[in-house]
Design a protein that fits this description.
- This protein is mainly α.
- It has helices spanning 9-15, 26-43.
- The chain contains two helices and no strands.
- The longest helix has 18 residues, at 26-43.
- It is elongated.
- The chain starts with 8 loop residues before the first helix and ends with a helix.
Length: 44
């Protein structure tokens, strides 16, 4: 796992590609973070 690994964030940055581990838009990231926060709150 490192620069050559396409599945890791570092590998995506090195290659200059995007995907599940490295989303392109900031909106998607904030939505995912909010969803994770909501799910965590429900678990409590």
């Amino acid at each position: 796992m490192g620069k050559g690994d396409r599945r890791t964030k570092r590998g995506k940055i090195y290659r200059g590609t995007y995907g599940n581990t490295r989303p392109k838009k900031k909106k998607l990231r904030s939505q995912a973070a909010a969803a994770a926060k909501a799910a965590k709150a429900e678990g409590r």
